[in-house]
Design a protein that fits this description.
The protein has about 575 residues and is an alpha/beta fold. The chain has 22 helices and 19 strands. Helix 6 (about 205-210) links the parallel strand 8 and strand 9 (about 215-220). The longest helix is centred in the first third of the chain and has 20 residues, at about 170-190.
Length: about 575
């Protein structure tokens, strides 16, 4: 924004009165329209005409995000000021003096302790006004110092980025800041402390290639550009013109590289919800206690039913989806997106929320309730990106010590050409390997269809439950009929031969229990279905939530290692084989 000449309105005044201050107008650099300064400030420096985001100073950003009165500075060590005695058109030390005089800052990063929504954290906030937010020794030390403070306090770490890249005037020492800040982030990851980055425009070079993209959760303002090489560098080095919208937050979200694009007014409440969802349970609180859940664990208590009838109910389009359950089971659910590689498959969703006062990671297949939703979600059939996203969220849960709940409802993994080209088998295999050794409790619930490896990729768990009208099988009945009888219409016969219904799953201990559904099925009463699922999760999580990681992994291995072997004679007599 630049100051425009204000138009003053003539009006009569008494001789003694001082004229009121004239309204101050600014010109938007995006649309070149006049904007009233007070409204512009009230709108967080977003143009009301074209929506362009003006840059904020570090001070303005901190004031917008943090609770009033909660801020205190983080001490930082002194650093080398001009290690190369660098001079281009002007001496580097002169550029530093000018930047300090113009911004009132010592360098391009401000580090503070504070609270957002009552939740404590430490933040490092970059200021593009200071030499383009470039990363030199002083900026790198401030990022590392803020991360160290978060480690010391045991609170989340937030970094707000705005940078053109590494500071050339400090040579290879500026390059070393990528490694320095990376080590600081690694220490937080090892300690199980949540890290968040907020990407603002622009974020390029060494900042993008280090701490900006190494955090657990990456949020970005609308239109923010993020990349290793900026458009000018690309054009000058390889003469390639970037397409419109390339490297913007929206482009990056579409390609699975960030978790969410957040409008500036929604940024503070989004951070508050995320911090609340991931906050540990209150000391001394024991929110997960065994409760009478109604989960059926004895074979004799599960009635015999026609498997094809169960299959038809499992496929009812009105059955609750993962997001339906998330809204009813979890407080403050925050969905996270992207596989950090290529895509954000919408057939699998996941995020952090609070279950019974305890933070958990919820991950599940997502279908839909209308033809359009089903198409948009690929009918719940995940691509490799979906399984990579699930794996990323599981690893985050393990770092933060969060129990994992997975909800399974898929005909199977997507079998298309692109999925095969992108390594569908490898993605599923990697999730199986990951879940086999995760040191946190995992509960999987088959809520509809549990089809093949696409289902198992979310179900290698400590406890596996199935809803009363759900199925779990190595293959769909239609595919089985087409292969064995050369006729897909033999699906009912195949379903009976495959024994895909809950009673048989409990008989073979593939399922640890069967969750009742409302009369007629979960699709008839979402609220009642969610309540029955909630009680079941209370029950089984209470059994495993306090077990240490080594025991969880060992018992998980024993559970799956027993499949296909004969159970002890005593168990056979008990009617479980």
């Amino acid at each position: 924004m630049r100051t425009a000449d204000p138009e003053r309105t003539a009006r009569a005044q008494v001789p003694e009165a001082q004229p009121p201050a004239a309204p101050r107008w600014l010109l938007c650099e995006g649309c070149n329209r006049p904007v009233y300064e007070r409204r512009f400030s009230r709108d967080l420096r977003v143009c009301p005409e074209c929506g362009r985001y003006a840059r904020l100073s570090a001070e303005e950003r901190i004031e917008q995000l943090f609770d009033a009165g909660s801020i205190s500075p983080v001490a930082v060590a002194e650093t080398i000021e001009d290690p190369l005695l660098f001079t281009d058109s002007r001496p580097y030390v002169e550029r530093l003096r000018t930047a300090r005089r113009q911004t009132g800052l010592d360098d391009a990063v401000v580090c503070v302790r504070g609270e957002i929504g009552g939740h404590p954290l430490v933040a490092a906030v970059m200021d593009f006004n200071f030499l383009g937010g470039s990363l030199g020794c002083a900026a790198g030390e401030r990022i590392a110092a803020a991360a160290d403070a978060a480690l010391l306090d045991g609170v989340p770490f937030l970094v707000v980025t705005a940078s053109g890249g590494a500071r050339m005037q400090e040579g290879a020492l500026s390059l070393m800041q990528l490694a320095k800040t990376t080590q600081a982030l690694v220490a937080l990851h090892r300690a199980g402390i949540l890290t968040i980055s907020v990407i603002t425009d622009p974020t390029y070079g060494g900042v993008a290639a280090s701490f900006a993209t190494q955090t657990d959760v990456i949020l970005a303002e609308r239109g923010a550009r993020l990349g290793f090489a900026g458009p000018r560098v690309i054009m000058q080095t390889i003469r390639q013109q970037l397409p419109a919208g390339f490297q913007t937050a929206e482009f990056l979200f579409e390609h699975g590289l960030i978790d969410e694009v957040v409008p500036r007014p929604a940024l503070r409440p989004t951070l508050a919800r995320l911090l609340a969802a991931a906050a540990p349970a209150a000391p001394g609180d024991d929110p997960l206690r065994a409760v009478p859940s109604g989960v059926v664990r004895q074979l004799d208590d599960v009635p015999e039913r026609d498997p094809w009838d169960v299959m038809r109910l499992a496929r009812e389009v009105g059955r609750p989806t993962t997001l339906d359950y998330a809204g009813r089971l979890l407080d403050g659910f925050v969905e996270l997106h992207g596989d950090r590689l290529s895509d954000d498959c919408t057939a699998i969703v996941g995020g952090i929320g609070r279950f019974a006062g305890r933070p958990v990671m919820l991950i599940g297949h997502q279908k839909g309730h209308t033809a359009q939703e089903l198409r948009e979600r690929n009918y719940g059939m995940s691509t490799p990106a979906g399984y990579r996203k699930a794996g990323r969220l599981m690893q985050l849960a393990a770092r933060l010590g969060l129990p994992i709940i997975t909800l399974v409802d898929t005909q199977g993994a997507y079998p298309g050409l692109e999925a095969e080209r992108e390594g569908q088998a490898w993605a599923i295999a990697e999730n199986l390997r990951l879940m086999a050794h995760l040191p946190v409790p995992i509960v999987a619930v088959v809520t509809g269809e549990g089809g093949s490896g696409g289902a198992l990729a979310l179900a290698l768990a400590d406890r596996v439950l199935v809803l009363e009208n759900s199925v779990y099988s190595v293959i769909s009945p239609e595919a089985c009929g087409a292969i064995l009888w050369n006729d897909a219409s033999t699906a009912p016969q195949a379903a009976r031969a495959l024994r895909i219904e809950p009673r048989e799953l409990l008989r073979h201990r593939i399922a640890d229990g069967v969750i009742p559904e409302p009369e007629g099925g979960a699709h008839n009463d979402h609220a009642a279905a969610a309540d029955l699922l909630r009680r079941a999760l209370y029950d089984v999580l209470a059994e495993i939530v306090d077990l240490d990681g080594e025991r969880l992994v060992a018992e998980r291995a024993a559970r799956f290692g027993a499949f296909g072997t004969r159970p002890p004679v005593a168990q056979q007599k008990g009617g479980q084989e």
